UniProtKB/TrEMBL annotation:
InterPro entries: Metallo-depent_PP-like (IPR029052). This is Phosphoesterase.
Amino acid sequence: MKPNIFFTADHHFGLPNIIKFSERPFESMEQMNEEMIRRWNDKIGVNDTVYHLGDISLGKPDFTKEVLDQLNGKIHLIKGNHEGAALTHTKRFEWIRDYHELRVEEPDNSNGKQKIILFHYAMRTWNGSHRGTWQLYGHSHGTLPDDEMSLSFDVGVDCHDFCPISYEEVKEIMKKKKWTPPFAPRNNED
């Protein structure tokens, strides 16, 4: 049985301006924070694995600690461009990195694994992009058009009903992409 793995980004807990900037459907920062914590915990259990791809909080360190203490899961943090407060609470995270290459057990793949590149920013190409490796990112708050020819997409909360997204949900999205291996044998139509 595969572990419960989730991905997310760009909560910006504690930032009132994000409601206007990203046109979030919340009346106040307090309502936004409470609702995103509730949605997180409704989906994620205490022992689930979460990869947060940056910009978890823009609140002060004490506020950020209060939020982090309420969130379920074993959180791995990929640093975004707004991590000042989160970095004052490093013990809450399993690890903190700028970039990570994750390998997930995947019996549907010929090699039994799915490789996933985790980075705060979208990339046009990445390690293994021509071999079916996925790239997950945040930062753009849903403003980048999805490229159906690329095995990458935005896992930020603004794109997924203000919730983390599971590995299985990511897999279903990737199956709908029109990506084909660039070096695959092609039928010649001579």
